[in-house]
Amino acid sequence: MEDIDREIEGNNAVRRPRIFRDRADPFETLNDEQFRLRYRFSRRGFFTLLESLEDSITTSDRKSYHSLNVGLACDYDLSFIWISCRFGGSAHDSRVFRKSALHADLQSGEKKGILLGDSAYRAETYLYKPILNSQNEAEKKYTDAVCRGRVRIENAIGALKRQFHSLHSEVRYAPDMASLIITAAVCLRNASILLNERPFDDDLGDEDDDDDGYDDPNAPSASGQAAMKYVVQKYFS
């Protein structure tokens, strides 16, 4: 009997106390800065978005590809103006863009403007790209200008990743859900800019997407080549 009592006492001595999940309301317990760091949005911005989205949140469980080729374009203020998460990782960047509504609108003239792309894209009257193996000083100046302009999309992606850390590595969800997560993050990033949210300055070592040494698989269209030549001669000669 004494042995049993000692065993019970021993079990009670090593038994770990149960720890219950903290059910405290973070909206009441966190100060403004703690709230911002945890949820990556200010309290004011969070509730503004919540009111806009509460009637339109949807879910999906369909499966698609094992990886995604995400196409993005932004304006000079780093707001995203186009996103595509429709295609698998094996799809070429140029094909992703050519199948987009943005491409169709620019091609038809419904939308006006100029995009700056890298060597993965086909030059068009509305899309300028670097001239690889530039033949003269004017072409070099043009290419430098295009590359400097393209830095804006790298800055936009970097700001997106700094606000939402999970995008800096693999998004470990089924592709269809990953597509929704990425699209939502892009929309929230645009909302942050509209609401003048303070940017996050976390240094996550964003990759530098450089064109040096990239083989150009996309011959420019005749009109695209003519447009690039015109710009080189008019503004860089």
Structure description:
The protein has helices at residues 2-14, 26-29, 32-39, 43-53, 93-98, 101-108, 137-163, 175-194, 222-236; strands at residues 68-74, 80-88, 115-116, 127-128. With 237 residues, the protein is mainly alpha-helical. It has nine helices and four strands. It has two domains: 2-53, no CATH class; 70-236, no CATH class. A hairpin with a 5-residue loop joins strand 1 and strand 2 (80-88). It is elongated and about 95 Å long. Helix content is 47%, strand content 8%. Helix 7 (137-163) crosses helix 9.
Radius of gyration: 25 Å
Structural class: mainly alpha
Q: Taking strands numbered 1, 2, ... along the chain, how are they ordered across the largest sheet?
A: 1-2
Principal-axes geometry comes out as elongated
Largest sheet: 2 strands, antiparallel
- Number of domain units: 2
Q: Mean pLDDT score, rounded?
A: 80
Compile the SSE list and pairings.
Blueprint: H1 2-14, H2 26-29, H3 32-39, H4 43-53, E1 68-74, E2 80-88, H5 93-98, H6 101-108, E3 115-116, E4 127-128, H7 137-163, H8 175-194, H9 222-236
Parallel strand pairs: 3-4
Antiparallel strand pairs: 1-2
Defining traits:
DDE Tnp4 domain-containing protein, elongated, two-stranded antiparallel ribbon, HARBI1_dom, two-stranded parallel ribbon, mainly alpha, metal ion binding, metal-binding, 237 residues
